[in-house]
Design goal:
The chain has a four-stranded antiparallel beta sheet. The protein contains five helices and four strands; from the N terminus they run αααβαββαβ. It has two domains: 7-47, Winged helix-like DNA-binding domain superfamily/Winged helix DNA-binding domain (Arc Repressor Mutant, subunit A, Orthogonal Bundle), CATH 1.10.10.10; 67-141, 2-Layer Sandwich (Alpha-Beta Plaits), CATH 3.30.70.920. The longest helix has 13 residues, at 35-47. It has 154 residues and is α+β, with helices and mostly antiparallel strands. Helices cover 36% and strands 19% of the residues.
Length: 154
């Protein structure tokens, strides 16, 4: 049986999307409930997979990774083995912040964060292009991030 989010669940999710550091009491106050039922709702939302994880969004410049690169990757074959192999390898690369499997001209889009362009060149030559099945990589350097994170409208 599918679970339907009610108004309180939606408000809790909106609050957590805006600031996952909110204390339980703060959330409870804002949804006009006591802490115990709010705690139970949050646990339920986690268990049901509505909340995947909590993260801090860091400033890439301040941590020494100011260059953001979008790499469009094409594989030589589209077998399940090839796709799974690529994903497993990419998941081991700390430079890759996001990997999306696509339909269309490119098979994958990667968001890659590096300190500078020589570091991206080394990543490209020594890691990405050395992967089995990779036949083409189209690179775009991000000039400006205009929207970094947006909560889901609920």
């Amino acid at each position: 049986m599918a679970y339907t989010l009610d108004e309180t669940d939606i408000k809790i999710l909106q609050l957590l999307q805006d600031d996952a550091r909110l204390e339980l009491k703060q959330i409870a106050d804002r949804v006009h409930k006591s802490t115990s039922p709010v705690h139970e709702r949050i646990r339920k939302l986690k268990d049901m997979g509505y909340i995947k994880r909590y993260v801090a969004i860091l400033d890439r410049e301040k941590i020494g990774m100011p260059v953001l690169v979008i790499a469009q990757v094409t594989l030589s074959t589209h077998t399940k083995t090839a796709l799974n192999n690529f994903v497993e390898q990419v998941n081991q690369l700390p430079e890759v912040q996001l990997c999306l499997h696509l339909s269309g001209a490119a098979d994958f889009i990667l968001h890659v964060s590096v300190p500078d362009t020589p570091a991206y060149y080394n990543f490209l030559m020594d890691k990405l292009c050395e992967m089995q099945y990779v036949v083409n990589v189209r690179t775009s350097f991000v000039l400006k991030e205009c929207k970094i994170y947006s909560p889901f409208p609920l």
